[in-house]
């Protein structure tokens, strides 16, 4: 009688502990969260080609999202309009240097004493490698009316942003970015690529496997109960779980079970209770969704024993 009372007390204590963990799980996870991820590491390959290394961080995604929101980003507004989840977000900043040239000679002069007389010049920008390419033009007509002395225009420029995404064995991510510009309108520059100087790269990615605690996620499973007294195939029902989704679980919680065991008197009903199970299939090759946890079981005669339960949820 005393032993039976002790066993009942042990079960009661286990239920209290599981209940405490159940209601405090989110708080416990918050305490166990890793510290703020380190700042992204930026490596300048050349002025127009950078590599940024970073760790997935929900907080960094939120910070960069806010920056786009502050700058009235149209693509961010469209994402929110479509209720889409942001997986990755980035911003690349580049610049063309200011140029100034005094007493520039005309590229073309037509002076015949007519109204069509003109001076024509090209306006150049300097690429990050020092090469120059035309971005605009200006034409001066000395014999026309004051409001028609000048004509100006810009050349159609093509901007190329190349991005390569990689994942390192350590779990960190790298993004390689490269910016170039082309002017294919002019014969002298057609087909040439001019590097554009990058001044800043910001990149962030949400963790691929954001996990949640689901307080209500009933899942039926097949369980094998192994104790010091018997082996019993059983059906179980887990109440809560923790994992990426309700089906992709790392942990199962509060798992009652019922099954049958053979003894010398025949088959008898066995009841089991497993407070927590871990999905060891995540680390074992060729095995998926196989859970293991401590189990207490008792039969119809009141015999209680302790062991382990192996489960495969449906």
Strand content: over 45%
Biggest sheet overview: 6 strands, antiparallel, barrel
Termini gap: 39 Å
Measured as a percent range, the helix fraction is: 10-25%
- The number of helical runs is 3
What global shape is seen?
Answer: rod-shaped
Number of strands: 19
Low-confidence stretches: none
- Radius of gyration, rounded? 35 Å
> What is the overall pLDDT average?
84
| Secondary-structure element order, N to C | HEEHHEEEEEEEEEEEEEEEEE
Strand order of the largest sheet: 13-14-16-17-18-19
Number of domains: 2
SSE-based structural type:
alpha+beta
General description of the model:
The chain is an alpha+beta fold and 314 residues long. The chain has two domains: 2-30 and 211-313, no CATH class; 37-208, no CATH class. 17% of the residues lie in helices and 47% in strands. It is built from three helices and 19 strands. The protein has a six-stranded antiparallel barrel. Strands 1, 2, 8, 9 and 10 form a five-stranded antiparallel sheet that branches. The protein has a four-stranded antiparallel sheet with strand order 4-5-6-7, with no helix packed on it. A hairpin with a 3-residue loop joins β13 (219-227) and β14. The relative contact order is 0.13. The model has no long low-confidence stretch (mean pLDDT 84).
């Amino acid at each position: 009688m005393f032993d039976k009372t002790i066993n009942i007390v042990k079960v009661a204590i286990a239920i209290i502990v599981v209940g405490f963990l159940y209601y405090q799980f989110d708080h416990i996870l918050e305490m166990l969260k890793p510290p703020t991820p380190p700042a992204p590491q930026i490596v300048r390959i050349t002025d127009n080609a950078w590599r940024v290394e970073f760790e997935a961080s929900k907080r960094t995604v939120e910070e960069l999202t806010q920056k786009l929101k502050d700058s009235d980003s149209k693509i961010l507004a469209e994402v929110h309009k479509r209720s889409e989840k942001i997986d990755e977000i980035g911003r690349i900043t580049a610049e063309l240097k200011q140029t100034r040239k005094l007493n520039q000679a005309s590229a073309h002069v037509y002076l015949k004493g007519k109204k069509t007389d003109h001076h024509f010049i090209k306006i150049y920008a300097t690429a990050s490698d020092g090469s120059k390419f035309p971005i605009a033009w200006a034409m001066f007509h000395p014999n026309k009316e004051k409001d028609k002395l000048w004509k100006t225009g810009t050349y159609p420029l093509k901007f190329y942003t190349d991005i390569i995404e990689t994942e390192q064995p350590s779990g960190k991510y790298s993004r390689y970015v490269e910016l170039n510009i082309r002017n294919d309108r002019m014969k002298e520059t057609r087909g040439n690529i001019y590097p554009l100087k990058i001044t800043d790269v910001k990149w962030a990615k949400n963790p691929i496997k954001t996990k949640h605690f689901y307080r209500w996620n009933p899942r039926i499973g097949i369980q094998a109960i192994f104790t010091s007294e018997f082996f019993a195939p059983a059906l179980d029902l887990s109440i809560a779980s923790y994992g990426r989704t309700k089906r992709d679980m790392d942990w199962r919680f509060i798992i009652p079970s019922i099954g049958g065991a053979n003894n010398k008197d025949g088959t008898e009903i066995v009841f089991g209770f497993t407070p927590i199970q871990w999905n060891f299939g995540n680390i074992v090759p060729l095995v998926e969704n196989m859970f293991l946890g401590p189990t207490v079981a008792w039969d119809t005669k009141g015999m209680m024993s302790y062991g382990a339960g192996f489960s495969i949820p449906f």
